[in-house]
Amino acid sequence: MSNSSEVIAVPAGERAEEDDYFAYVDGVGNIPRDIYKHVKSEPKGDLPRYSVHIVIQHLLVLFTFLALAATGVPLLFSESLWAHYMISLFGGADIARIVHRVAAFTMMFACAYHVVTIIFGTIRQMISGRFDYKRTMMPRIKDLLDVLHDIRYFLGIAPYRPKMEKFMYKQKLHYFAIIWGNCVLIIAGLALLYPDTMARVFPETLAKLLPQAIEKGVSFPAFFQEFARLMHADEAVMALIVVAFWHWSNVHFVPGRFPLQWTFLTGKITREHQIEEHFLEYINNLKEIPEEREYMKKLLKEKGLETFPKVSVSDLPRIY
Amino acid sequence: MRTSNDYLKIFLFVTIMFVFLFVGLPAKAADKENCLMCHKYRFMGRIDEDGKRINYNVNEHIYGKTVHHSVPCRDCHTYITKLPHDPVTEEVNCANVCHIKPPFSNENFSHEKIIKIYTESAHAIKPGDSLELKNAKPYCKFCHLNPIYTRVDEKRIAFEKTLLRCLNCHQEKGVTQAYIHVTHRLRHKASRSPQEIVQLCGKCHQDSALMKKLNVSQEGQDAVQTYLRSIHGQSVTLGSQSAADCISCHASSKLHDIYKKDNKKASIYKDNILQTCKQCHKRTNKWLVQIGVHPKAHEEGHPFIHFTSVFFTFALYGTVFSLLGLLMLETRTRKKDGIKFLLRHGTSWRGKLKRRVKK
After folding, report:
1. Which residues from B are below 8 Å from A41, CB to CB?
2. DSSP state of B253
3. Per DSSP, what are the bridge partners of residue A41?
4. For chain A, N or C: smaller number of CB within 10 Å?
5. Are A186 and B257 in contact (CB under 8 A)?
6. In chain B, whose CA is at the least distance from the CA of A10?
7. Domain extent listing, chain B
């Protein structure tokens, strides 16, 4: 806590940005953008982020993904020396095939579970009037602006990070990548598992739509199967590399998250993380959680940043 | 108190027992004509006219454990009529009738039936073949190397337990032999593993120089390569016992009836292929059989598939490098802003601000 007693620097000369620097919350005061450097956090999480359903879905996907990768990658690189050792961990290629399929169906169940959670969660929020599309994964123009703003901050041009909602651009990008990847992998995987049925569904439909192509000697099933095989492998390798190198670095290995971010187990996020990357969600937290309001008020008082509540004209007679 | 004599006795006993460990029981090769009288000598051989060294030794202990162990020598080597015999110029004819009666049969045994099937197949020597082709075509001994009798001790077939019941009525020797003969073929179409079959067929079919010399079509030249790229081939390479190998599709249960695909008798003839796929893919339909078991779209430059492949390569490297680049930039800036690596109770922002914030 070397700099906890220092006064937070206000970027003078940027009066236009001063409104951006402070965010006013009723009953708390003006909250500076970089207050996250001065708050105290509990590594296991202070503020709610994910419901227990999301945590369960994530764990399901985590374990099935690892099982799928461990049994699938040796098949793709079957001629490599290590592939045989890796596949023998599962009891040979014929057992690994069953493991792969069971894991795949579990992952598909987790996806269905997620869709159900999202739909019913949204309906529940709408009924109680708490639904706000800004707090969901819906992509917005603001996300694009946030990326540009963040890059400017990384390059030292912008003084502070953008104020982001519950889900920032990285998370939205990854979420949509997962949706795309899952669709590709499930369809291509089913084509590999049930070639007979899938050969019936897709190519037959295509053949009906394009009869002249058949006359030219184009074989849709052969093409579709080859395409599915290619897509399944390529998409899976891409997913594996992105998860292993990008996702895990982001959530566990970057400074401030190392050695482990507990969010995926506890469903809670640390205070400093919430304020840094999800500032607008933190403002929502302040409005919703009284204890958090008390904590922030105390901290602002310590820093000498207390402000008197703004008084609107309509309130004047009552105060008087 | 033991005397040195006692120690000597113990030592002698142990030595004798040790020697017994390495003395095998005499093998039971059928050698009525006593051919082994000469052929048992390990270095019996000669240097022929071309300077090639040939060994004529028959190891009784190995031969006695092979499938042909009870067939007398001259049942196959029929051209030997006197002793000492003349230099051997003829090949063994597997279609010979030997003096063995299979259990439950009165006929003398012969491989004639399967050889008849073979002589009609694509691998048999036809009258119009060139000399090169004739030499390249495999005959019985090319694939069948008189393998050592291997017994199936799989859990699926409780070998000893099932055999015990047969012994209630049948004589042990005959029924054991018959039982082994059947059970070790029960697992697959062939008694060889899929890996061994791919390796065996690949011995010639993977040799592109040989295939080119024999005027095999481009499709035939690439057959092994394209198969190994397919899902069947990849599984077999990885050690699968249930994925399709060469003869799963190219031969029926007769095993030797391998024809070119335009022959009506071929299992891969366009009218028979539905039945062939049905062996594993129970719900086969006319669309499934069009799927390339030897996928070649990747190589022939199918534009769409080629494009997808290139697209994915770019997408992969593009995504990974841009995302990781951004992540590294982010980490560098946050470090300069004073964040420390370890997440501890309290705060991670324990460092000093090393960056000039625009004032």
Report:
1. 345-348
2. T
3. B346
4. C
5. no
6. B359
7. 1-91, 136-150+189-300
Residue A249 has a CB neighbour count (10 Å cut-off) of 17
Could you say which residues from 202 to 231 on chain B have a Cβ atom under 8 Å away from some Cβ of chain A?
228, 231
Element (H, E) at B10: helix B4-22
Q: Quote the pLDDT of residue A12.
A: 44
Q: How confident is the model at residue B156 (pLDDT cuts 50, 70, 90)?
A: low
Per-residue pLDDT reduced to its tens digit, A183-208: 999 999 999 999 888 888 877 777 77
Nearest to A234 by CA among B322, B222, B305: B305
> What percent of chain B shows pLDDT beyond 90?
10
Question: Which is nearest to B142 in space by CA: B220, B203, B185?
Answer: B203
Which residue's entry shows tokens 């290995």? Answer: A253
Query: Is residue B346 less than 8 Å (CB to CB) from chain A?
Result: yes
The tokens 């992540």 sit on which residue? Answer: B327
Sign of CA dihedral B197, B199, B204, B206: positive
Contact A4, B309 (CB under 8 A): no
Q: In the prediction, which pLDDT does B154 show? A: 54
Backbone angles phi, psi at A23, to 5 degrees: -120, 125
Q: Considering just the CA atoms, what is the radius of gyration of chain A in Å?
A: 26
Residue type for position B76 = C
pLDDT of B104 > 80? The answer is: no
| Secondary structure class of A258 (helix, strand, coil) | strand
Contact B295 A225 (CB under 8 A): yes
Q: 3-state class of A216 per DSSP?
A: coil
Q: Which residues pair with B148 in a beta bridge?
A: B66
Planar angle of CA A17, A22, A23, nearest 5 degrees: 120
Please say whether the beta carbons of A14 and A4 come within 8 A. no
Q: How far apart are CA B215 and CA B203, in angstroms?
A: 17
Q: How far apart are the CA of A256 and the nearest CA of chain B, in angstroms? A: 5
Give all strands (DSSP E) within A211-294, no chain letters. 268-269
Report CB contact under 8 Å: A197, B357: no
Residues of B whose CB is below 8 A from A95? none
Is B108 an interface residue toward A (CB < 8 Å)?
no
Give the ipTM of the model, two decimals please. Answer: 0.82
